Amino acid sequence: MREKTKGTFGELVEHINRLFEGVGISDEDQINVISSVMRHAENNEQLQREAIANGPVDFAASPTLPEAIEEIVYVAGEGHQKAINALLEMADNGGLIDVLLRGGLQQRLRDRAQQEAAEVG
User: Fold this and answer.
1) What are residue 111's phi and psi, to 5 degrees?
2) Cβ pair 76, 44 in contact under 8 A
3) Which of 26, 54, 82, 114 lies in disulfide reach of 58, CB 3.0 to 4.6 Å?
């Protein structure tokens, strides 16, 4: 029998909210931070080896996991800060706007507005 490693999305959101309780950052920023740390962790070769070699319980109890995650948080934070600083220092935000438009900004905005209107109505 496989051990339960994932809960529902709602349970995950509850855990994230508790983690950041009282910090004063938006739900979107909380999700972005967790997603970024997760992506960095997925690319960590040491954690990949440990995940392959261990079951969920042993992996979660790994003595190297806290140190690896701490390092990942620093690396992710540094990367985000450099990227935000680069955007803030750009004299012209036309390049950023181009990337956002190519990424579907208008449609995403329309979808969000329609979703919110449907929830209210």
Assistant:
1) -60, -45
2) no
3) 54
Question: Quick one: DSSP state of residue 91?
Answer: S
pLDDT at 3: 43
Q: In whole angstroms, what is the distance from residue 94 CA to residue 12 CA?
A: 36
Residue 44 has φ and ψ, to the nearest 5°, of -80, 115
Whether the model clears a pTM of 0.70, i.e. scores above it, the answer is: yes
Instruction: Identify the helix (H) or strand (E) that includes residue 5.
Output: none
What whole-number distance in Å separates Cα of residue 51 and Cα of residue 67?
A: 15
Cα–Cα distances in angstroms (integers) from residue 45 to residues 16, 41, 83, 95, in the given order: 25, 9, 24, 33
Q: Do residues 114 and 121 lie in contact, with contact meaning Cβ atoms separated by under 8 Å?
A: no
* Contact residues for 93 (Cβ-Cβ < 8 A; gap 6+): 87
Average pLDDT of each block of 10 consecutive residues along the chain (121 residues)? 61 92 92 95 96 96 96 96 94 92 95 93 74
